[in-house]
Amino acid sequence: MPGVLSLPLPFFTPTRAHAMPFFGGASFGALGNRASYGLRRMSGAMYGGMINDFRRGIGLGRIRRLTDPLRNPDGSPVHVLYPYSRHVVPVPDDYPPSAHVTGYWFLDHSDDGWDPPAQLVDFLAAGEPPVYIGFGSMGFGKGADERREIILAALRAHGLRGIVATGWGGIAPGESGTDDVLVLEGAPHEWLFPRVAAVVHHGGAGSTAAGIRAGRPTLVVPFLADQPFWGARVHALGVGPAPLPARRFHTGFTDRLGDLVHTGSYASRANELGAAVRAENGLAAGVLALEQITRDGR
Predict the structure, then answer these.
(1) Strands, DSSP E only, in the chain?
(2) DSSP 3-state helix, strand, coil percentages of the chain (rounded to 5)?
(3) Whole-prediction pTM value?
(4) Are 89 and 10 in contact (CB under 8 A)?
(5) What are the tens digits of pLDDT across the range 154-204?
(6) For the chain, which has fewer Cβ within 10 Å, the N-terminal or C-terminal residue?
(7) Which domains are assigned to the chain?
(8) Contacts of 107 (CB under 8 A, 6+ apart)
(9) Are the beta carbons of 172 and 105 closer than 8 angstroms?
(10) Angle between helices 249-262 and 144-157 (to 10 degrees)
């Protein structure tokens, strides 16, 4: 059985179409974009020891730390499954047959026993659809109190109802002091996002996918890694304003939130894009790709 890589962002395969996502959606021209993927070899430098420990445990030899992750030891290409939508990141013309953009892999929670708490159900039923705001673990507690106060003030300034998800420390917990804002730890995005008017999050690949699938206008507040890339894609696709870097959150959030909720084109474009993404079956496409790779043997 051949080994297959998978990552929910276009990280491994060099292309002239766009730079590696960790450059935040920047473009360095065709040659510069392709050259930027040389950094992917750093994954071997960072995780090479772990990889070699695993290989030794299953009877395989060591690999060099800076080996090309897209080549097998015999020189054949390593296949990559990219579980994101071609409607969100178009497939470049120079992608090889070994790069498979399958569409998103969504696993719904309808059968996992999760039931929405009564407080959340009652809040959603009590008025207009709210704006969701949550940053997961981003911020790691630093600035969480300040972010909370800025969020509450921005919602008041625009007369909006809101659901504020504290996550793992990105926003400080506690009562909001108003019936128009519900503060909770979190809820499954695939359940909650279709029930809100717009979403604000840190731009992780999964959160971005959930917001797009739900057809909701999106504001990305990126903190690190590939988050600026997804924020740039959201804006380029017309489903939300330009991303607001976390370092500018305290001065720019109120205005950017107003842009998100008062620009009608974001909602209409998000609805169109959401319908296109929901029409895909990324899981089925991924299975078919794996079956084909297995049949070919390489």
Answers:
(1) 4-6, 79-82, 99-101, 131-134, 162-165, 181-184, 198-201, 218-220
(2) 45, 10, 45
(3) 0.90
(4) yes
(5) 999 999 999 999 887 667 777 877 889 999 988 999 999 999 999 999 999
(6) N
(7) 4-104+280-296 (no CATH), 118-275 (3.40.50.2000)
(8) none
(9) no
(10) 40
